[in-house]
């Protein structure tokens, strides 16, 4: 599932990842159009940069694939993922090894060229705070990505914890001084709960967003045994 590569946006041209069984989607680049069915892999990107760098003339938001933004010359970073369509996935971006990511400010999720879909920029962190938990919904219409939304988190998991604060709009944030690499002991890597909605190219309904929305967001982390240590440590043990 969450194969991830981190590189400059300019290098996004080709992402070589082997297709898994049942995956008939031959499009591996986030800046190309794909038409998918359930169980295909789907490649999309997340770009990290300052908020203004996602806008042309500070007013028109473009896809990070659009060369007019010149994201690479602004030091933006890119993570590329290939989750399976309609499977609930937890994606991670390791900020211990890439500390500039949650100080860069904002991230935008995107895919496609002619049908370029991109999310609004969402705040990830600055020198004071790091946000580590996100939910992303990829919405398809007949197998083509139509829309990408971030669902904002609630603050219920941070109330009463001195290392965390509740930021309006964004949900819980960890005070940056508690993060590894900045003097603290918490792994402030970003975890993105991913879900799908809409329809695939055969008009089959994608249900995983419905499933995620019915569950408590944090209870899902227990399903991902490889991440259990970092994630449950972050939320349950340290504070
Ligand atoms: C952006 O600004 C430049 C220079 O001010 C101008 O030439 C260009 O037409 C503007 N583009 C848009 C889309 O507003
Ligand atoms: C991030 O990388 C560091 C150093 O390689 C590692 O110790 C840490 O467990 C990783 N965190 C996650 C969430 O993978
Ligand atoms: C960091 O972000 C928070 C929340 O958006 C904001 O209140 C604060 O002023 C920012 N701090 C810096 C140093 O930019």
Automatic annotation (TrEMBL):
Molecular functions (GO terms): metal ion binding
Superkingdom to which the source organism belongs: Eukaryota
GO CC, any one term: cytosol
GO terms (BP aspect): protein histidyl modification to diphthamide
Keyword Cell cycle: no
N-terminal signal peptide: 1-21
Coiled coil: none
Keywords, alphabetical: Signal
Statement: the UniProt record of this protein carries the keyword Signal: yes
Protein name: Expp1 protein
Species whose genome carries this gene: Ensete ventricosum (Abyssinian banana)
